């Protein structure tokens, strides 16, 4: 369809989440913004192939995801300073404790296989349905579901290895309260 | 007696598989969204707003007169 004002506004409205997706995938703010720029250029150049009434964010995410994939293959051997660059993209630095937790999470996320990471982000953060995520990744809905499940289990294992003993203050708090009463 | 005991143990120590897992998963979901929304809240950087505005050449008027803007297009890039 032609590039109407409304369509342009819709593309603009999708930019914040495209950036978030790009940064989540690449872990690098500068590279993520280049990725978004390339996505927008490609989308605008191919706007005729967008079906009116279909899911514009999903269409844009598909372009970005494919660009990232081809880009990733090229850059695989480059050494990355993922965490440092990611932190720079944030407007406000989280407080110390929260920041540490955040870094740990980011590091764990980067350890996931790419298939699993993108599936988890699309469903768990971007808020796409399993069906839309499957379209974006070009695979079956069942495949997305199993990737998301594996990603969650792996993150849980990486972040909370010791399980019950390590997780949450609930047990301790309960013991303290019980002891006083 | 057996029933009471098993119920009590359920209340004090949530099942390692069920309760704990659900709690960890909700925490992971929360962290994932927090990370993502941090970026979403930054809005649209000027660089992209410019890009989309400038490439908005109306298809109905194919005159070349509109392309003068292009020169400033990449100035914002580092």
Structural class of chain A: mainly alpha
Mean pLDDT of chain A: 82
Compute the CA-based radius of gyration of chain B.
Answer: 28 Å
Output the number of helix runs of chain B: 3
The helix content of chain B is: 55-70%
Low-confidence stretches of chain A: 163-174, 176-181
What would you report as the Rg of chain A, rounded to the nearest angstrom?
19 Å
Q: What's the CATH C level of the largest domain in chain A?
A: Mainly Alpha
Largest interface: A-B, 45 and 36 residues
- Beta-strand content bin of chain B: under 5%
Overall outline of chain B: rod-shaped
**Share of residues in helices of chain A:** over 70%
How many domains of chain A? The number is 2
What is the total tally of β strands of chain B? 0
- Record field, number of beta strands of chain A: 0
Mean pLDDT of chain B: 66
Q: How widely separated are the two ends of chain B?
A: 73 Å
In the CATH scheme, what's the topology name of the largest domain in chain A? Rna Polymerase Sigma Factor, Chain: A
Layout of SSEs?
The complex is a heterodimer of chains A (181) and B (78).
Chain A: H1 5-26, H2 29-45, H3 56-75, H4 82-88, H5 96-111, H6 114-124, H7 130-137, H8 141-159, H9 170-180
Helix pairs in contact in A: 1-2, 1-3, 2-3, 3-7, 6-7, 6-8, 7-8
Chain B: H1 2-12, H2 16-40, H3 46-54
Salient structural properties:
heterodimer, A: 181 residues, mainly alpha, 2 domains, disordered C terminus, B: disordered N terminus
Description:
The complex is a heterodimer of chains A (181) and B (78). Chain A is mostly helical. Chain A has helices at residues 5-26, 29-45, 56-75, 82-88, 96-111, 114-124, 130-137, 141-159, 170-180. Chain A is globular and about 50 Å long. Residues 163-174 and 176-181 of chain A have low confidence and may be disordered. Chain B has 78 residues and is mainly α. Chain B is rod-shaped, with a radius of gyration of 28 Å. The termini of chain B are far apart. The interface between A and B is large, with 45 and 36 residues.
């Amino acid at each position: 369809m032609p590039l109407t004002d409304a369509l342009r506004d819709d593309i603009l409205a999708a930019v914040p989440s495209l950036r978030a997706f790009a940064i989540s995938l690449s872990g690098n703010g500068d590279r993520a913004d280049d990725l978004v720029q390339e996505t927008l250029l490609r989308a605008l150049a191919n706007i005729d192939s967008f079906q009116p009434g279909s899911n514009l964010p999903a269409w844009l995410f598909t372009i970005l995801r494919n660009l990232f994939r081809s880009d990733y293959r090229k850059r695989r051997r480059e050494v990355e300073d993922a965490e440092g660059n990611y932190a720079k993209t944030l407007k406000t630095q989280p407080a110390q404790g929260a920041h540490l937790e955040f870094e740990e999470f980011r590091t764990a996320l980067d350890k996931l296989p790419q298939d699993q990471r993108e599936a988890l982000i699309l469903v768990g953060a971007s808020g796409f349905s399993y069906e839309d995520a499957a379209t974006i990744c070009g695979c079956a809905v069942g495949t997305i579901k199993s990737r998301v499940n594996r990603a969650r289990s792996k993150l849980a294992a990486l972040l909370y290895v010791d399980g019950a003993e390590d997780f949450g203050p609930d047990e301790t708090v309960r013991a303290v309260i019980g002891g006083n009463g | 007696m057996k029933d009471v005991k098993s119920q009590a143990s359920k209340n004090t120590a949530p099942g390692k598989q069920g309760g704990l897992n659900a709690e960890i998963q909700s925490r992971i979901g929360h962290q994932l969204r927090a990370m993502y929304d941090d970026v979403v809240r930054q809005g649209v950087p000027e660089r992209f707003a410019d890009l989309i505005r400038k490439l908005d050449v109306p298809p109905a008027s194919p005159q070349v007169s509109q392309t003068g803007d292009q020169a400033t297009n990449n100035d914002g890039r580092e």
